[in-house]
Design brief:
Elements: E1 2-3, H1 15-25, E2 32-35, H2 48-57, E3 60-65, H3 66-70, E4 78-81, H4 84-91, H5 101-111, H6 114-136, E5 141-143, E6 150-155, H7 157-160, H8 163-171, E7 178-179, E8 190-194, H9 198-213
Parallel strand pairs: 1-2, 2-3
Antiparallel strand pairs: 3-4, 5-6, 6-8, 7-8
Helix pairs in contact: 1-2
């Protein structure tokens, strides 16, 4: 199971690396399930040629979400792509209907939104740069490199207090950062932040820094 871009770091995986892994796993009879729910947020749109390589490999199942890309959570729409053999095996276990008629009708409309997708990537790139610059000016806070519409940060727990303490203080300002205590390898002080509008992002940064500097919350 691979996530591209990764959650919660937002790091993107190189297609050649994924294909190399699939080839190395071949002798063990293993396949790769590649979750690309956030792939459309990357600065450059991944070409259809890359997806074709994954399909032709025959050992990679790609899962993508239209829910996140097009902001239609109520539809719960997504799709899978793989080689014919693997798809046929999956079809044997698929329920008679996986999406309703409204979701089906939405697909061609959403797929035609090229201008929206370009604006989406531009927004993501702009806000990513804003967050990177903002966190660089915060002593004791580190933002990890991200290619998605979210960023992983670390607020020094020895300096700013425990994760739950910071979270509780932020909630008083109606700000919620996703704590990452349940991610293996992470612990105290790690949060994931999703980008919103620029004005909301500016407000979030201001509130976060005020909370971190306030001794009464520690």
């Amino acid at each position: 199971m691979l996530c591209n871009p990764n959650n919660p770091t937002g790091n993107a995986l190189l297609p050649d690396w994924i294909l190399t892994c699939a080839e190395k796993f071949k002798d063990q009879g293993l396949r790769i399930v590649l979750d690309e729910s956030f792939i459309d947020f990357l600065p450059e749109r991944q070409s259809e040629a890359v997806l074709r390589q994954y399909i032709e490999c025959g050992r990679i199942l790609v899962i993508r979400s239209m829910t996140k890309t097009y902001e239609v959570p109520g539809i719960r729409l997504g799709y899978a792509a793989a080689g014919t053999e693997l798809i046929n095996r999956l079809l044997a276990y698929k329920e008679p209907w996986s999406v309703n008629v409204f979701a089906q009708a939405a697909v061609p409309v959403l797929m035609a939104q090229e201008a929206y997708l370009e604006a989406l990537r531009q927004w993501c790139q702009t806000e990513r740069a804003f967050f990177k610059s903002a966190f660089q000016s915060m002593p004791g806070v580190h933002a990890f490199e991200s290619h998605a519409n979210y960023v992983l940060i670390y607020a020094d727990s020895k300096r700013f207090g425990r994760t739950q303490t910071i979270q509780a203080a932020l909630l008083k300002h109606q700000v919620y950062l996703r704590p990452c205590l349940d991610f293996r390898g992470l612990g105290e002080g790690y949060f994931r932040i999703a980008y919103r509008t620029h004005d909301e992002n500016k407000q979030l940064i201001q509130i976060l820094w005020e909370v971190l500097q306030n001794d009464k919350y520690k």
